[in-house]
Amino acid sequence: MAGAGSWAELAAREHRGAMAVLSGGTLMFAVDTYITASLMPSAVAEIGGEAFYAWPTTVFLLAAVVTSALVSRVLATVPAARAYLVALAVFAAGALVGAFAGSMAVFLVGRLLQGVGGGLLAGMGYALIRVSLPRTLWTRGSAVIATMWGVALVVGPGLGGVLAGAGQWRWAFGLLVVAALAIAAIVPSALRRTRARIAPGPFPLGSVLYVGAAAAVLSVAGLAADVRVAGAGLAAALVLIVLFLRHERRTTAAVLPRATFRPGSSLPWIYGLSAVLVGVAGLEAFVPLVGQRVAGLAPVAAGFLGVALGAGWVAGEIVSASGRRPRGRVLLGPALLAAGTVVVAVTLFVLDGPLAAGSWGAVLWAAGLVAGGIGIGTAWPHLAAAAIGGADDDPDLDTAAGAAPDESEADKASAAVTTVQMLATSVGTALGGASLALGGTDPLASARWLFATFAVVAVVGALAARPAARGVPDRA
Predict the structure, then answer these.
(1) For helices 13-47 and 55-68, what crossing angle results, to 10°?
(2) Domains of the chain, with CATH numbers?
């Protein structure tokens, strides 16, 4: 990479509109992902459907995984501004249905629509960076979009809890409708400079079916209380992901860029390390529960402990995106994540009885989680930028000497960042559920299994970071 742009360039008039749109759409989807869990008890108490308590999240994420895999085809068929407006409209329609739902069946329809629109918004967040910003700003643009997930981790659960506590849970969806309308108002001007349409390729039906099936199995596995059911679901999902990759290698109607399967390509390592970072971040969903049951923290204190990783993620993104030597940061980030999770795991095994329920344990956990979040933020923007430009580095994509690379392949490389992110989130949730189940009814044993499992995953990611770092363009 020849050089890096500055934050001032990113905020310049010609770029700030696009960044406001792309980061705003991603933030809406991310907040919606985390806010629903905190307001579901209030929603179920009013509209019923307790037997389907977990379905709103499952339906939402399943739809989002599938549509995020179709972003490259959507952008090849519809101009960027129009595609973004349609995604906003579908998402807002789903939120409106949720806001006025009188039954669980209607509520699920709204969640399905939100997932369809939200998956497109999140996928286009990364996919449109390459056509909205110069290459020198890709890392900073990726950092801003990724930071929205960290912000949502901090804001979403708290906002949902406040609205639910005030008996106004429906306004959580009403606010999302208002936000969608505000973003839609600036889309035409913000995305007017995007490139013209390109010819769409064949519809990736087989790939979408594999991805959808894996996401569905993972969603069910993450809800299972029995470790055998959760483990079987996790294993089945991993088999489906392997079959998806095998299908992708052989088909011309693919979701991933062809460069992913080129011998010597760094893209598989980049996607893989990205998946590890996001998958381990799934720990955050279980931290408040562990804080209350093991450390004896009050719900408010456990909630603050739960956002420690997200806060570290945001801080790491802001600092790392401005730094030089991205390869070193891609190596450092997973190492910090591994160190942070190991600290928490070791603390749980060393501290027992009264010590484990004391404040010292919580302080060490908070330090480990913040360090882990900083590790994710340190590596993520550089991995995302490398993935966005990964297809450009494949010599097989040039139609002639000096010709531009296949733009559809570049779109696939960008959109795949979100597909990988969502699948990794599903894997992390399912893995966390299975790990907790291994501890049975003993809260401390469950917490030990949870953090030990994720610590092993994080350590493996740190050890495998070097091949991914080789695919990250370095700069002086």
Answers:
(1) 150
(2) 1-204 (1.20.1250.20), 257-476 (1.20.1250.20)
